[in-house]
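[Q] Does anyone have a clean structure-token version of this?
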Amino acid sequence: TSDTVTIVVETLPPPPPVALPDTLKLCVGDEAVIDLSGYGFPYTWSACGGAEIPVANDEIIILGDQAGEFCYEFGAVNACGMTSAQVIVYVVPEQTVDAQPDVDVLLCAPVEMDTCLTATVTGLPEECIEWTDLEGTLLGTGGELCVTPPVGISQYIANVPGLDCIISDTVTVMVDTIPPVLPPNLPDTVLLCLNDTLSVAVGDYDYPFVWQDENGDTVAINEDLVLVGAEAGTASFIFEATNGCGVVADTLVQVTIDSAAIEIIPSVDTLVVCDSAAIQLDALAPLGQAVVWTDGEGNVIDTAISIEVLPQPGSSIYIANPIELGCVTSDTIVVEYVPEDLMLEINTPSLLICLGDEASLEAVLDPEDVAATISWYDEAFEFIGEGAVIAVTPDRAGLVSYIAVAENACAMDTASIEIEVETLDLAIVGGDTSICTGDFATLEVVGCDNCTYEWTPDDRLTNPDAAITDAEPLRPSTYQVIVTGEVCRDTLTTTVDVGTCERCEVEKVFIADAFTPNGDQNNDLVCVRSEVMDQFSEIELMIYNRWGQEVFRSNDMQNLCWDGSFGGEDLPPDVYGYYMRIICPGEEGEPDQVFTRQGNITLLR
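[A] Here you go.
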């Protein structure tokens, strides 16, 4: 296979790389990369006068790990010669440009000479500094800037672009045409409480100023004056402002108060007036200071020593407040306007209530916002309370009266109202009883003629919405009835017990155990007797002698009697046995019940 040899013939030494900077500026901790990709000649990097620096991928990385000035040398060679260049690297710490003068420059127009400003930065040459105005317009570079400032306030900013660790600095030049004017909000006198502090702010003020105490010592420069109420009394402070055209001054007096109180004249807690003529309220405050007048809701009325007010119906509150002085207490007066025309009525949600319930009575005044004391009395004119609204609980039924008396300094009126009180004195007649299965119990509510009734449970009642109803329960049951009158409502309960009863009262069937059939018409017969004979369908009586011979048998329900004979002959005295069969008829669909009884009868003659 073939092979090729390339021969390059140069006419000049290699040129410096286009991307090669003369200088670099770095903040401590930053790094810079010099990339020579595409440069067609062999080259090397080394510290100036030092060892060669390795290059990777045509890039050299410069680390700003410490502050100082560092030199890096570039070299390239070809067949015609060699090219070299140096890169100076400035690594600077975080700092602020030092622009001078460091105080505002005050000039008076017309300005005929330039004003020169200077700036320095540690670790950088002066040519790295740029000067701009507030809009960012470049005014110059280097360590000095000389300008002819216009009338007004001009600000000149010294900065090093491209470095975040360098903070700019500003020089302010003020050019005035007249001397300064005093701040419009500067007070003449300041009241202060003992041991309190207060800052006197000049606000947005364009001129340099100082505060001096009465001894001429400076206490603040271009800052708020802080007043301290160290002791009661007065102290003076001088405010002085200056510019290139002159000086102005003013005096502030500090008055320190231990404690005081505002007093409203007239000196009463409540001023009662009966007409609507205007009245004057005066406030006596420390040093004759004006006060802030407010109403009872805190709304500001005026700031003055005296105010005039027009009385309004009812009570109006007026408060004289100190102006930001905690050691001075406010004063309050109530102006009570009481019209001479006063009318009173009583309202209640209901004129009919139930005994034991509560009724609400409300006194309504005309005019409605008039100030008056309202007293309440019962029908015996016994005092029961005060206020516009009162709750009463009548202790008897019928019509009950209540009286209200409204009274103020200028008028009085009374009103009364009657409340009908209903009561329910109820009872259940026929309740709490026992019945046999299939029978019914009559339940009746007594004690109210015009009430409505609601019985529950209602499935075995004949009239569940009436005062009288028949209950035929299948099992023991408790019934509840809700009785409602015009306004009263009561609940009663009763129990009906249900049991299984014998259809016939067998225990009420009797026969004597001895008789004397001797014809004296006294105890001559022994008979089956019962007061409930009609309950039985059949009773059969059989009598036997001691040998078991039947001597008598009968089922005649009208005549179950034995006369002591057998076969027409009187039997001898002896003890005879009897056997009785009693039949009780069953209910429909059920069999008859058969009962037996036996015993002895002694026959005596």
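[Q] Thanks! Anything notable?
[A] Residues 189-257 form a domain with the Immunoglobulin-like fold (CATH 2.60.40.10).
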